[in-house]
């Protein structure tokens, strides 16, 4: 549960209604704040699940944070996804078994779920697993990308080898159990990255039989399930029914990214679509409010837009020639053209509000197009111009969040393309509705 989308009070209420514990995913970039995050979580509940990265820096940070709570915690489960890692990550270790993943001609990631790589991670996490009350669960992440890498290796053969390494590690007491986190299990069977759930469970059973002949230590299956990506819920039900009838499986099913939807189930191009309301600031005096509490566009947006359009209207420069004082200098003409360009950009940003679907796409547009355009147009801005633009972008960000949340509600109500209609109560945030909906599913842990 992300504190950006849930208040501390609401997390307490959700934890009281949840079946077992609070689960928190800590992104790699938040590693310096692991201690703070773990402290907050343990204030709410004395048994928690933390999902973090698989770098040595993450292991060390978790070890230091959890060690300080030995006397006031019941248990901490640490889920460690491994296999798929980005090339821009902090961990620069390389292995002969690394498989490059490309988008076109550009390498975007590395994949490795070999015994060599797994052994290095288990060794790096040894101090973490030695803490009393800590359970480490290694999750092989998106093993289906082996097919995308076109290495000539069957993805199920690769998964069986990986599961055998994990079963061996469990038998040696080096990890508590293992699991799989996969987009492929939620994909349509016709997709090249589809990972059949039955094949996954068969691989776990075969690995256990090959290694020790006992029940499989596969404890966890993560797959995308949310209001818009509904196929995962059906897959979860099939896995649940199968596991209930099996004497050699004791697996829990978890919904990954319950608030985040990606194009084509996580394997397509494009920006994520979040099922959330946002907290926005309504001017200097009104404080923060959730977007579902605001009926129309944030009230201070119009005044900030008008102030920016007025400030960059270039009227003083136009008066120079209109009143016959003198001709504008080259520098003044360039400034006037810049003002006109900036006015056009402001108007386009205003018109685009009703078309916004993804806040990540909005931020990307600002970072790659809007901000560079401003820098290329003006060598520098005076203090007043900078202030006016800063206030506009702050207000426009609030308006964008409001517009995106409002559009999301409309799309959920409309349904279609295999998605049912969801009538989200006006007094409930989107994220609260999405989580409560999943909590009703008995198949999910």
Features:
3-stranded antiparallel β-sheet, alpha/beta, 445 residues, 45% helix
Describe this structure in words.
There is one protein chain. This protein is of the alpha/beta class. Helix content is 45%, strand content 15%. The protein has 15 helices and 14 strands. α2 (34-44) crosses α3 (56-67), α7 (155-171) crosses α8 and α10 packs across α14. The longest helix is centred in the last third of the chain and has 32 residues, at 383-414. The chain is elongated, with a radius of gyration of 26 Å.
What overall form do the CA principal axes indicate?
elongated
Helix fraction bin: 40-55%
Kindly state the number of beta strands. Answer: 14
Largest sheet report = 7 strands, parallel
Series of H and E elements? HEHEHEEEEHHEHHEHEHEEEEEHHHHHH
Distance between the termini: 15 Å
Secondary structural class: alpha/beta
Number of separate helices: 15
What proportion of the residues form beta strands (DSSP E)?
Answer: 5-15%
Numbering strands along the chain, what is their spatial order in the largest sheet?
Answer: 1-2-3-7-8-9-10
Radius of gyration: 26 Å
Whole-number average pLDDT?
86
Uncertain residue ranges: none
């Amino acid at each position: 549960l992300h504190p950006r989308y849930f208040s501390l009070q609401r997390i307490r209420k959700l934890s009281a209604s949840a079946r077992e514990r609070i689960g928190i995913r800590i992104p790699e970039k938040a590693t310096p704040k692991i201690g703070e995050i773990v402290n907050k979580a343990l204030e709410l509940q004395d048994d928690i699940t933390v999902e973090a990265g698989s770098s040595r820096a993450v292991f060390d940070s978790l070890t230091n944070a959890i060690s300080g709570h030995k006397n006031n915690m019941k248990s901490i489960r640490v889920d460690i996804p491994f296999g798929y890692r980005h090339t821009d990550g902090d961990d620069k270790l390389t292995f002969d078994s690394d498989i490059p993943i490309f988008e076109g001609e550009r390498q975007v990631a590395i994949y490795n779920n070999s015994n060599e790589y797994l052994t290095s991670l288990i060794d790096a996490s040894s101090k973490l697993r030695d803490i009393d009350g800590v359970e480490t669960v290694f999750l092989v992440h998106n093993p289906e990308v082996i097919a995308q890498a076109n290495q000539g290796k069957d993805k199920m053969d690769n998964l069986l080898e990986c599961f055998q390494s994990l079963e061996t590690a469990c038998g040696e007491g080096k990890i508590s159990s293992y699991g799989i986190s996969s987009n492929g299990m939620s994909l349509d069977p016709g997709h090249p990255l589809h990972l059949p759930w039955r094949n996954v469970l068969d691989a776990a059973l075969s690995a256990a039989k090959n290694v020790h002949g006992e029940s499989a230590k596969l404890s966890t299956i993560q797959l995308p399930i949310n209001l818009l990506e509904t196929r995962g819920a059906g897959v979860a039900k099939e896995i649940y029914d199968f596991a209930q009838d099996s004497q050699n499986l004791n697996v829990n099913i978890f919904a990954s990214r319950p608030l985040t939807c990606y194009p084509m189930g996580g394997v397509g191009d494009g920006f994520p679509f979040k099922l959330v309301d946002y907290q926005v600031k309504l001017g200097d005096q009104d404080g923060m409010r959730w977007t579902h509490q605001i009926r129309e566009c944030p009230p201070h947006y119009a005044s900030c837009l008008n102030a920016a359009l007025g400030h960059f209207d270039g009227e003083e420069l136009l008066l120079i020639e209109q009143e016959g004082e003198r001709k504008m200098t080259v520098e003044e003409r360039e400034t006037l053209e810049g003002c006109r360009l900036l006015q056009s950009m402001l108007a386009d940003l205003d018109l685009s509000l009703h078309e916004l679907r993804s806040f990540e796409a909005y931020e990307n547009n600002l970072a790659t197009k809007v901000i560079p355009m401003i820098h290329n147009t003006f060598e520098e801005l005076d203090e007043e111009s900078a202030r006016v633009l800063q206030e506009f972008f702050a207000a426009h960000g609030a308006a964008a969040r409001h517009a995106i949340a409002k559009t999301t509600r409309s799309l959920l109500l409309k349904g279609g393309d295999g998605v049912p209609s969801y009538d989200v109560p006006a007094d409930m945030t989107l994220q609260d509705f999405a989580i409560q909906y999943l909590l009703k599913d008995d198949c999910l842990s």
